[in-house]
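Sequence in, structure out.
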Amino acid sequence: MKRIKKGDQVIVITGKYKGQRGDVVSMHDERAVVSNVNLVKRHTKANPQANQPGGIVEREAPIHLSNLMLYNPAASRGERVGFKSLDDGRKVRVFRSSGEVVDI
């Protein structure tokens, strides 16, 4: 089980985009693509078969998971994540500071 999953709201803790929040769009091994974070300009060639124009396209690049923290809306800050087994046997993510369950 991963500490950060697709759809989670995360905050960047280091680097050029420190302090920015966004939702995880996709996961790639140890990296995540976060909406409106780590934007890069990509020079693309036109592809008439796919009806895709050429030019400079701005898009999100993957960012390493070590640079992200799960955002806790109750505390309004990023927090560490741990794991806990419930009575029914499910393994869930919890915030380390409060013990509040992340997964529902």
